[in-house]
Design brief:
By secondary structure, this protein is α/β, with parallel strands linked by helices. The protein folds into three domains: 16-134, Gyrase A, domain 2 (2-Layer Sandwich); 147-220 and 415-468, Four Helix Bundle (Hemerythrin (Met), subunit A) (Up-down Bundle); 228-408, 3-Layer(aba) Sandwich (Rossmann fold), CATH 3.40.50. It is built from 16 helices and 15 strands.
Amino acid sequence: MSSAQSMAGYVSGDTIAALSSRWGQSARSVVRVSGAAALEIAEKVFEPAGQSIRQVPGHTEVGGWLRLEEGVKCPCRLYVFIGPGSYTGEDLVEYHLPGGPGIVQMAMAALSTAGARPAQAGEFTLRAFLAGKLDLAQAEAVAVIISSQTDAQLRAANSLAEGVLSRAVEKIQKTLAELIGELEANIDFVDQDIEFIGSEQARGAIATVKAQLDGLLGDAVRWRELESEPRVVLAGWANVGKSTLLNALSGRSRAIVSGVAGTTRDVLMAPMKMEDTTVLLMDAAGLCDTSLDEVGRAAREAAVAAVGRADLVLYVVDAAAGISARASQRSAASQSSKGQWQTLEMLGPARTVIVVNKIDLVSKDDLKKILQEVRQKRKERLVAVSAKTGKGLDELRKQIREHLRGAELSVSGAQVVLTGRGEEGLKQANEALDRAKKLLGENEAIEEPELVVMELYEANAALGAITGQISSEDVLEDIFSRFCVGK
């Protein structure tokens, strides 16, 4: 028995049952039963409207009634999947019931009485992994598909489930296995003066594998980046209304609003609900290039850092000061106008929306001139708002939503997606290859082939842990414990 099969709390051979659909009131609930006794249990609790359950082929739907308790039954659609052609590789039966929580509780009690024990978190997918239906990277994808909240997350999870990462890793392992084989042959025939691979060839092969690993690490989408909430930073000069805008967009009084410039020092954060996702709004200190005290300089540095990490920058402009680069009067408003324009020049247009705020303080004609001038000079999206009155905020939310949705489209099903575990495995393999390369040195002869082979085995083991070819009990328990019950 493998270490996975002896994991604490998981009893191989038991028939297990769990609710596989969402808990709560719904049109339909799905209860799943898997194991050697799945069909026997179904015969005890299910009354088919037609042929016997034992007579139906795999992947068959059967209508009938589920006996919840003595004298009580409910309509049920039964789906029979005969192993090894099922998700778990075992005989598997799904009970599709009316969605009331009370019915589900009674159904689970009836199945338990008939011989099915409650499944633990991730146990169905663990059995699929043990049966060879999924590798470990694909099994992990099941959990992230369930937890996906955005289109980008779902596409990334599907990439994992379809084996894009697994195939890339297996390709590298094949090259690595060939190199290990040739080096071991050198060791086996050392007394016969036969060399299957030279030092230069070995260095080249290691360089090839490292290039493949570096390519994966460089081009892959990190799941942690998709899992975090999109960061939208409100940037601009001091006193342009960023704090008021943060409060207006988030619907809460998160930031202190004052007419005194420089009120915001730390980067303030507030969530903003948008359809099926949440955006993290960040209000940064003003980006004014003026003489600042130590605290002011630290606040400005924090603001610059927040802008650098942002998924989207809302560059907020004071409409009353304008943004004209041609202002000629040596007034405070004129200098503010020049400063706002110069700071905007430092931001990339691809992830910036210009927000002209305080439009309630300027005339329609002046606002029209400001907007025309910005459109002539800049390619960013442009929105005019009044954070104080709420005018234009719906259009701003639309622009934020469209920008973030457009950014999501960069994640394709063909891209390699790395969970934290996958990324760590690639890095460990790379480090082992570095050690092997160092052992080879620049000599013509391979002086310590046994040590080189040992490091290559370490690299292969790190890659194997990604797909589950080499898995410790602790790794498996950590992965499957993060699943919900019923998956």
